[in-house]
Amino acid sequence: MSKLPSTSPKIPPLSLLLLLLLCLPFLGNSQTENEERTILLNLKQYWENPPSIQLWNSSSSPCDWPEILCIDGSVTGILLSDKDITGKIPPFICDLKNLTKIDLSVNFIPGEFPAVLYNCSKLQFLDLSQNYFVGPIPDDIDRISRLQYLNLGANNFSGDIPVVIGRLAELQTLYLYQNVFNGSFPPEIGNLSNLEVLGFAYNGRFKPARIPSDFGRLKKLKYLWVAESNLIGEIPETLSNLTDLEWLDLSLNDLSGKIPGSLFLLKNLSDLYLHKNRLSGSLPGSIEALNLIGIDISMNNLTGQIPEDFGKLQSLTNLHLFSNRLSGEIPASIGQISSLTTIRLFNNSLTGDLPQELGLHSKLTNFEVSVNRLTGNLPENLCAGGKLRGLIAFSNNFSGELPKTLGNCSSLTTVQVYENRFSGEVPAGLWSSLNLSTLMISDNLFSSKLPGKLAWNLSRLEISNNKFYGEIPAELSGSMNLMVFEASNNLFSGTIPIELTGLPRILTLLLDGNQFSGHLPSMIISWTSLTTLNLSRNQLSGEIPSAIGFLPDLIDLDLSENQLSGQIPPEIGLLRLTYLNLSSNKLTGKIPVQFENLAYDSSFLNNPGLCAVNPILNLGDCYSEPQKSNKSSSPLLVMALVLATAVVLVAVVFALFMIRDYRRRKHGRDIANWKLTSFQRLDFTESNILSSLTENNQIGSGGSGKVYRVAINRGEAVAVKRIWNNRKLEHKLEKEFLAEVQILGTIRHSNIVKLMCYISSENSKLLVYEYMENHSLDQWLHAKKRSLSVSEYAFATKVNEKIDVYSFGVVLFELATGREAKDGDEQACLVDWAWRHFQEGNSIEDALDQEIKKPCYLNEMSVVFKLGLVCTSTLPSTRPSMKEVLQILLRCSPPPLVNGETKALNECDVAPLLSSTNYLSSYNCTQRKRTSDDSLSCNV
């Protein structure tokens, strides 16, 4: 059989060429993927292999990595936000030829603006926010000409904003917030015709400037955020040209004048924030911006009435108009807004009755109308939506009974209606409301017995100055979280139940001005957290329990105007009391030696049986013998008269010598007029001090005197504070001065400068302290700190003792954050920075000083930060007293050593004090982001 000839198929040349052309793209893609993988792995190695991008490897495609965006198999985006990157941006990143998006926000990238990005010719999106960039934004940044999104916020860029930014014609979003720019707004920004979002907020170092009228040319602008940027002058009418505007935030500036009525005609506007300025005049009467969701124009100088047109805003959820001078009635139409959840109108001059439909058509969560002149009843339907958490209506003229419906409002956490004229009984269910933590109803006309059951979560119960009667129910001891119980000036009677000693967290107990009788509870020692105890003006009898002396945190004790008898327990002298009043009782015996100084001169009045070793307190002498009979006392009387006569003669002779000596030295040295009183052994005399009070030694000066550094023996030095007065000190002032000096002289504490002695004359006094070589608290806190951009203005308020509380709050912020209270520009302030950080929902831990922030300290540092918040509340009347501040600090301080070992810490539960809206609700609580539930957003 013959073989068939072998033949091979022939492919036409045209088909072969077509096949080759079809394969070329796949070959090209394969090469591009390998190149891009190599570039990205080099980038990972350049940044020292951050653990957050460990998935990057040579065996997988970059398009499968979660941080990489690809289109058609080519890398177009790098998304490395919050990946702990600490290195700079390398030049070869732009070897990714198709790169359009770079997000490196929330990292630790240092240095100046990365000019290497100029080579990324297709770059459209650049986010470098929240890093450590410094220096100016370069004048040629417009070389990244295709940018549509640029975010350089939360860095340390400085200098002027370059005018060339106005040349980025495609730019739609520009964020430059929270830097240290010290120039002004370039008007060239008005050239960005495609701009939709502009954020310049929190640049407190900007030069004071008006809002550029060129902003009115940004026709597509939807979001304008220029809070806390040193804006002055009036809001320009040109902003009404921004017809697409949805969000306008000009808060925390120094804007003045009237609010342009045209702003309320912007039909797309949903959020308007103008709080904390100096705006005046009345609110616009005509409103067409019917899409408004949030309005905050609080803390200005607005007058007039709330417009009736506000009732047309059926999308409104948050209405904040507090701390103005608004008057008139609240429009009834506001009660018909179905979406309204938060109403904050406190601290105005509003009058009349509240709209009775409030809460009927909407799910109110927070209702605050305190410090006005409102009258009538509270609306019945405030909690009709079942969401009401805060009812704050104190300091008004409300009357009648509290709405019965509040007794069924299980969502309530705080009720503050004190200082009104409410009467009748408190709704039964309110006492035991499921989530109630604060009930403050003092200074009203309520009348009833206390119920046997209170809310399990109740931490603050204030019912003083009412007409409550009957006995304190023993069941009150079941309120295990109760920290403050104030029931002063009521009609309570019976004994103080021993069950009250079972309150483990009680800090303040005020039962004064009632009709309690019987003995003090014997188990009072269990109040280990108690700082304030006032049982005065009752009918208590028996002895003072010695257990009071073992209450470690007690600083304020008042048992006056009772029928207490027996001796004062010496253990009480061991307490760190700042106030003590045992007057008007039947106490006998010697007072504890610790109280024998002028600081307690009114603590023991009207106790005829008390005596003291030191006669300084005007008490009887404990060493004088009582008279037994007239016969036995006669010889003593004769001897006393003889002795007195002898003393008088000696005194006369001595006086004559003194007069002669005075006349002889009348024109001598002034030192004879000075008297030295020492509190420890001294190696110098008044002569050494007086001779050194020269201008060369002066180191400080103030309104009451000057401070000198005086060198003494062996090169040591003392600090001398000279306090002068043009006339002789009044008796009361002299008495107070001596008492304070005596206390200071006996204090021995490592953190308190020792008072060594004082030297006095008729018109001047010298306080001599140890000289502290280690500078001031400010230098220790901030000597090595970098300069920070913070706002620096404070609240304008009436001067009273709460100014000191505010100042203490500033120090707490300095301690917790490591930041300075002031930094350059007079429009910057640490307080506002801290509040803003808190209001935006940021973690408190992020605000704490990085140098000392350790896991073991986080709880204590957070408490200090929160305490700074309540101490710097806008309204002085809503700040805590220093006594309450001390309660919190004592509660949270480390426990003492017991037998050489540290006692286990209890949970530091100060949340009820810190979260009380009595303190925090008075501050602006505007949220930067809309949430479905914006109520009580300031709670710590």
From TrEMBL:
Residues 1-30 form the signal peptide. ATP binds at K721. It holds the Pfam family LRRNT_2. It is found in: Cell membrane; Membrane. One of its GO terms (cellular component) is plasma membrane. The keyword Chaperone does not apply. The chain crosses the membrane at residues 636-659. The keyword Glycoprotein applies. It is a single-pass membrane protein. One of its GO terms (molecular function) is ATP binding. Keywords: ATP-binding, Glycoprotein, Leucine-rich repeat, Membrane, Nucleotide-binding, Receptor, Repeat, Signal, Transmembrane, Transmembrane helix. Residues 693-940 form the Protein kinase domain. PANTHER family: LEUCINE RICH REPEAT FAMILY PROTEIN, EXPRESSED, PROTEIN KINASE DOMAIN-CONTAINING PROTEIN. This is Protein kinase domain-containing protein. It comes from Tetracentron sinense (Spur-leaf).
